[in-house]
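Quick one: structure for this chain?
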Amino acid sequence: DRPMYLSNLASALLKRYIHTDNRPDLPAAVDAGRTALTLTPRTHPARSSRLANLGIALRARAGAQGEPADLTEAIEVNEEALRSLTPGHPDRCSILSNLASALHDRYQLRRDPADLAGAIRHLREAVRATPRTHPSYGIYQSNLGLILTPDAATSPAEAEDSTVQAAQACL
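Got it. Here's what it folds into:
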């Protein structure tokens, strides 16, 4: 299964980049992820995870190289991954979180309120859909608290409540 091996290679290259800062690994991870996706039929059950992995690599490259097009593509592939999953799918909340992170990154660059609103909406959905006992609940809640800033058109009390709930979730 060549697409599976390419997807695994993309993940391994991204991990190595994160741990060693070996710059050539980042574009190689994106290339392997894109090729894996190209070879994966639209109806394949692993397509959503390959889309999500490519989104993570693109977001990492956007952060490292400052390329806005990578961030836009990361958002697009995460949106496609999200559309392909049912509401109860076990990967849905992590993809919501990845999409929210990419939207927030783009908000930081462009200051487009729609990006911030989308990031908040997706993280709220991830928090609502995740049981409080799940290991990722605190991460989603914390990320939500971090983006509910005064410029997020939310009340300071809501941001503080989310931050407190995130801290409590970690206990």
